[in-house]
Give the backbone structure.
Amino acid sequence: MALKIEKSFDVGQPVEKVWAFLSDPRKVATCVPGAQITDQVDEKTYKGTIKVKVGPSVTDYNGEVQIVRLDPQNHEIEILGKGQDVRGRGSASMKMTGKLRVLDNGGTEVTSVSEIGVVGILAQMGSRVITEVSNVMFGEFVKRFQAQLQQPADAGESPAASADVQPIKATTVAWAAAKGLFREKS
Amino acid sequence: MIHKTSPEVGGMGHSIKRKEDLRFIQGKGNYVDDVHLPGMVYGQLVRSPYAHARLKSVNTDKAKKLPGVLAVITGEDLAKANLAWMPTLSYDKQMVLATGKVLFQSQEVAFVVAEDRYIAADAAELVEVEYEELPVLVDPHKALDPDAPLLREDREQKNNHIFHWEVGDRQATEQVFEKAPVKASVHAFFPRCHPAPLETCGCVADFNRATGRLTVYMTSQAPHVHRTVFALVGGIPENNIRVVSPDIGGGFGNKVPVYPGYVCAIVASLTLGLPVKWIETRSENLQSTGFARDYHMTAEIAADRDGKMQALRVKTLADHGAFNAAAQPTKFPAGLFSICTGSYEYPNAFCEVDGVYTNKAPGGIAYRCSFRVTEAAYLIERVVDVLALELKMDPAELRRKNFIPAAKFPYKSSLGWTYDSGNYEAAMNLALEKIGYRQLRAEQAEKRKKGELMGIGISSFTEIVGAGPAHTFDILGIKMFDSCEIRVHPTGKAMARMGTKSQGQGHETTYAQIVAQELGIPAADVTIEEGDTDTAPYGLGTYASRSTPTSGAATAMAARKIRAKAKKIAAYLLECNENDLEWEPGKFYVKGTPSKAKTIQEIAFAAYTNIPPGLEAGLEAVDYYDPPNLTFPFGTYVCVVDIDKGTGEVKVRRFVAVDDCGNIINPMIVEGQIHGGLTEGLGIAFMQQIDYDESGNVQGGSFMDYLLPTAVETPHWETAKTCTPSPHHPFGAKGVGESPNVGSPAAFVNAVVDALSHLGVKHIDMPITPAKVWKVLQEKGVAA
Amino acid sequence: MAKTAEQLVRVTVNGRERQASVEPRLLLVHFIREVLQLTGTHVGCDTSHCGACTVLLNGKTVKSCTMFAVQADGGELLTVEGLSANGQLHPLQEGFKEEHGLQCGFCTPGMLMSSYALLRNNPRPSEEEIRWGISGNLCRCTGYQNIVSAVRYAAAKMANDKTAPVEMAEVGGTR
């Protein structure tokens, strides 16, 4: 099951500051709900985990994140993440391209295009659930990303984000998925 | 000669109400999940989320520690007892629990046993499995590519090719095609679908340590065959195994194979000495049990300019999933697909089928298919319509021109089948008359002028059922005879047991009616039993519409043996010669003196109280019937559809089904079968597909996506009959359970294509969803 | 994963008071089938589509596979076992037999309960209304046509026969 999701959002910070944050997987991981970087294998590869909770259902993925391409000139980054469910219930992979653009007001627009592949029982639900879960998680990501970047530059180590994983409300997802059936474009 | 019995006796032709209904309407059916034994525990399977992966490890520690869990069985555990693999009904083998690798999403990996089903579910969640993903193969067309992933490393042959099968004369057929003035062809895909009986599969395996006997209550359409398989696979003496098929909530072929769940439950019971219940969920049923169809077919017809067909050429790619578990007779890897010449005379024909493995659930033969006859009938009726379009000929007229004439039966087809009897033109004429064909064509012409879309689809199918004669038919070596044992009691009531097993077909009533017909004992006085291997005579079970042709015949033959003995007793009681006696249902009387008579009840009493010297006591008989041939039910279905140009929705306005199944035992029951099968055909044609994405994820793995028709989508079915008895069957019957599923998909598809043919549409693959039709309307520029 | 503390559930089932201590997550259908041992109600799917589990709770049809037993506490349940009174079949049951409205019988209890509720709310339904009324109950065997006839039969009988049981007044039900 392959899904393509495009999102963009604005950050009220200069592009170099945003780039410094975006090009560091450790920092980005702090914004992804339930994610943790556990180890750095080499300069491009990291090991990590992510815990996804939808209602009472919890899935823990164990995997790897790799920086495939880093272009500081054009502020473009491509990363590849792959993980397997620790209990053997499936796997997921994500290829994400992130691009920054300078805005007239001095801020930065962040555009991301993600291709998500899911194998396992979740994939049987089809794009309905996966799209909505991704939307909810992305919404949370944007909030944290923006919040982190408001902090002073020398604030030190970023706190781990996975300490308190709020479960995504299953009803929210279900309602959004049902509405999605009738929307023209999600 | 078939005597007419009175309604009180209820023999052939009477629509007597069903004897089995009383318990079902009061909620007193006894289905497998209703079986409750003291000390019973529950099993649940852990299944693979991956379509193709190495199995690195299975960690059962956490699961085993959960309070209430009695056992967790893995493939490694089974391998120690040589049970990790089991034979399939197609001479392949299948993993019971995975070892080494997994080959389809939802494949069985471990089995947990716990005190109740909720704890079992909790425990299943605690089993930790480590996989290493492998490249996935879901497109059967790529299965034979040199760089295709190799699925079955356990086989000697290192590729994904299962079999190549051909029949007919390739060369002669080719020569005709080379010279033919007219050719028509179609590439028709029959999608993977699933029978989805309302009751899922399951069992209660009960090994009694004290007696050494294993009893398995299971959803089985073939209890004796399953008993023999368990004996051979499990090494348990066959006299110590009892298989009981109680009431079954629908089969449709889904309950013929042996599933890993059954084997795991048996192993668990043997290990624990407790009854173990395993009932699968609906999702498990759709994702792992015997699917149906998945045939990619190409048919070509070579014909003369006036429409006389000269040759048929068929090539098929069969997607069998990860294991070849299709339930079919040994000599026929593609089942009875070579009936694809259908109702027509083809002087030349050639058919070839190649089977391949893919990373999908195993199976193929199910869903009322008569061993692939559904695929064959669909293909021929579609390609005939394509030819009609090519020739600009009316599809009914093209059929009429090419039907095997009634006078030519028994008819030997160029693919080797000897059709027993048929009168295709009469059936078609009746169907066309009932639907008002000429007026409909006129209406269609008018509607086309106004841009409205309406179509008429015809399907004149020929079926082949009742497998089958011992010289050609066996399953795993067991010949496909069937059986009946009848006992008449002193007070004139009777009990009969057969080797078949009803899953709703009404055997408790119809078999009693056969006995009533042959012996004149009222059907109400005859108790019918099936499904308990301790008491029923050996049989091959109920599927492929074989019960009436085989066990039904055996019932008649056994009854006739009883009648022969009864005649001797009657002669003794009436103090005359046997040759002086005449029979009418229920009594023997002296020729010319009808008042000098003995009823069957009086004879039965005498069999125990006044036995003629030299004769054994009792009045009973057994018959094992080897049918001399298969039977060939047939019919014509006509479907009228209207298409909504805005939504692409297809509405079935009318559907007339004319069936010919020879002599009918119970018309009410036959009609019920037709309604049910047509409704399944409707689902297949318009709603159903089990599809897989490129990663091998099942799409259509639950009722959210796999749609069944409800009472709202289902139209009103109009039925009628012609009657062309089978010349070789004891009472001229043919069997009919599958005809509606065989004949209807082509009728539906032909109707939709007919509605759009004036726009240049030649074929649309099933399922014909509104989205598909809407796309066509857009392409042709006629969408509203 | 410790077992959650059990709760007492008290229900009147087919006119008879029953009670049991159950886990809060026990589904109503399992409560009916395994605790009350009324196996007429069936499980046919895991997505609430098939309707084989249909029963009446406090006079309304519910899919008992999609409810917890604790949600039925204090309520009145009617299952297929409660349709006949004193050994006499309900007109619906009679109709299913007379009109051949069943083959394998697995959907039948759910169909009977849905039809029962339908006729109670609409004693003279048209064919279209019957088909809508049973659209939450799947059948694989009959194609629905004879089920429609069976409901029609019952409606006619109940309209003519004032003594036919329409409501479950007395304790009925074979057990």
About this structure: The helical segments of chain A are 15-22, 25-29, 121-124, 127-150, 170-180. Chains A and C do not touch (no CB pair under 8 Å).
